[in-house]
C-alpha cells in the first residue's frame, strides 16, 4: 500500500508498505478521503517538537472516512463495504497514536474492532467528502459544549478555521441565537458568510463596535461591553484572552480550544467579582460524534463549502503546503 511517512520539517515521503495483516478480531479499512488537520500543518512547517504527537519516520493523519474491506473471522458487528469513521483515540489500539492512525495511508488495521468505540458507521445522508470532516467537527462541537450554551444566548468564535466553523455550527445546533466569527483572513470570512454567519475582520475596524452592533450591549464591572455570553478561542492568540478579560460581561464564559502554551497572569479578583469563567476544551467524547453526525445528516449547513482544495495522495507535500496558507485555502483533503 502507499503511505505518507513524516520525516521531519518540510519533509514527507510517499512509501510502499505491506498491507497490514489481520488477527481474528480485527478489521481492515481502506481510506476514502482524509482531511489535513492544523496539527499536521504545524508539524510539517515547524517540526515534531511543536508538542503534537506526530513522530518522525512514522505514518500520520487522523481525519478520515473509510470503508471496510476485510475482517477477521470473529468480527460480527461489521460487514464488508460499510463506510466507517475511525475514532482516532481507539482506532489503532494505542491511545498515544490518536494523531497518527494512518489517515494518509491507503489502509488502516483496526485491532479488536468495536462498534461505536473504535469504528462508527457513517449514515448514507453524509457524503464522503463531508464525512472526512467528522473528526475536526467533533473537536469544535466539544468546545461549543464546554461553553455551556443555552438557547437564546450569544457567542463569538475567534478563528475561522475548520475548528472555529465547527464550533460556530455546533453553537447554533445547541440553540445559541446569534453567533459571530472573527478572523484576519477575508478569504475564510467570506466562506463563513456564505454559511450564514455574521463575521468580523479584526484586521480592520473595531471588534467591540462590530460586536455591539450585532449582539447588543451588556454590563461589566467597568461599564458597557458587547453582549457576549460565550467566547471561544480557536486561534491561540494571546490577545483573545486579554479581550475577554477587558470586554467580557458579567457571567460570561471563555473556552480555549486552541493549542497555546503561553503562560498567563490572571486577575483572579476580577474573575471572582464578575463571576466569569475560563474553560479548557481538548479532544472530544462519543457524544460529540453523535451530535456531529446529526448535524451533518440534517443538511442544514453546507459544510462541504469549507473544502477548498482536493489532492491525490501522491501530492501530499503540495497539499500540506497549500493547507499552510489561510489566505488561499480553508480545508484541504486527500482523495484515495
From TrEMBL:
Residues 24-115 form the Alcohol dehydrogenase-like N-terminal domain. SUPFAM superfamilies: GroES-like, NAD(P)-binding Rossmann-fold domains. The chain crosses the membrane at residues 155-175. Its cofactor is Zn(2+). Residues 163-297 form the Alcohol dehydrogenase-like C-terminal domain. One of its GO terms (molecular function) is metal ion binding. Keywords: Membrane, Metal-binding, Oxidoreductase, Transmembrane, Transmembrane helix, Zinc. It comes from the Bacteria. Pfam families: ADH_N, ADH_zinc_N. Belongs to the zinc-containing alcohol dehydrogenase family. PANTHER family: (R,R)-BUTANEDIOL DEHYDROGENASE-RELATED, SORBITOL DEHYDROGENASE. This is Zinc-binding dehydrogenase. The lineage of its organism: Bacteria, Bacillati, Bacillota, Clostridia, Lachnospirales.
Amino acid at each position: 500500500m502507499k503511505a505518507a511517512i513524516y520525516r521531519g520539517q518540510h519533509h514527507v515521503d510517499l512509501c510502499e508498505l505491506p498491507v497490514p495483516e489481520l488477527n481474528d478480531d480485527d478489521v481492515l479499512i481502506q481510506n476514502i478521503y482524509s482531511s489535513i488537520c492544523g496539527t499536521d500543518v504545524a508539524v510539517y512547517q515547524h517540526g515534531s517538537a511543536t508538542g503534537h504527537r506526530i513522530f518522525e519516520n512514522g505514518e500520520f493523519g487522523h481525519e478520515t472516512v473509510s470503508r471496510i474491506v476485510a475482517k477477521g473471522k470473529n468480527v460480527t458487528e461489521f460487514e464488508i463495504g460499510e463506510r466507517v469513521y475511525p475514532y482516532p483515540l481507539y482506532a489503532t489500539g494505542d491511545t498515544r497514536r490518536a494523531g497518527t492512525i494512518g489517515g494518509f495511508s491507503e489502509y488502516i488495521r483496526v485491532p479488536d474492532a468495536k462498534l461505536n468505540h473504535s469504528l462508527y458507521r457513517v449514515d448514507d445522508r453524509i457524503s464522503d467528502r463531508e464525512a472526512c470532516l467528522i473528526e475536526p467537527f467533533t473537536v469544535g462541537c466539544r468546545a461549543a459544549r464546554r461553553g455551556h450554551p443555552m438557547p437564546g444566548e450569544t457567542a463569538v468564535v475567534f478563528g475561522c478555521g475548520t475548528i472555529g466553523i465547527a464550533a460556530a455550527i455546533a453553537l447554533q445546533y445547541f440553540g445559541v441565537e446569534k453567533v459571530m466569527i472573527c478572523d484576519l483572513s477575508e478569504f475564510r470570512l467570506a466562506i463563513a458568510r456564505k454559511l450564514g454567519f455574521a463575521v468580523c475582520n479584526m484586521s480592520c475596524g473595531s471588534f467591540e463596535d462590530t460586536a455591539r452592533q450585532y449582539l447588543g450591549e451588556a454590563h461589566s464591572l467597568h461599564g458597557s461591553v458587547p453582549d457576549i455570553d460565550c467566547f471561544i478561542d480557536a486561534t491561540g492568540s494571546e490577545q483573545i484572552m486579554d479581550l475577554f478579560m477587558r470586554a467580557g460581561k458579567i457571567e460570561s464564559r471563555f473556552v480555549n480550544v486552541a493549542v497555546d502554551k503561553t503562560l498567563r497572569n490572571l486577575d483572579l479578583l476580577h474573575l471572582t467579582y464578575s463571576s466569569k469563567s475560563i474553560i479548557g476544551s481538548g479532544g472530544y467524547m462519543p457524544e460529540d460524534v453523535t451530535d456531529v453526525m446529526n448535524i451533518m445528516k440534517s443538511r442544514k449547513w453546507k459544510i462541504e463549502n469549507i473544502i477548498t482544495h482536493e489532492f491525490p495522495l501522491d501530492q501530499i507535500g503540495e497539499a500540506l503546503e497549500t493547507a499552510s496558507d489561510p489566505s488561499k485555502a480553508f480545508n484541504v483533503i486527500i482523495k484515495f
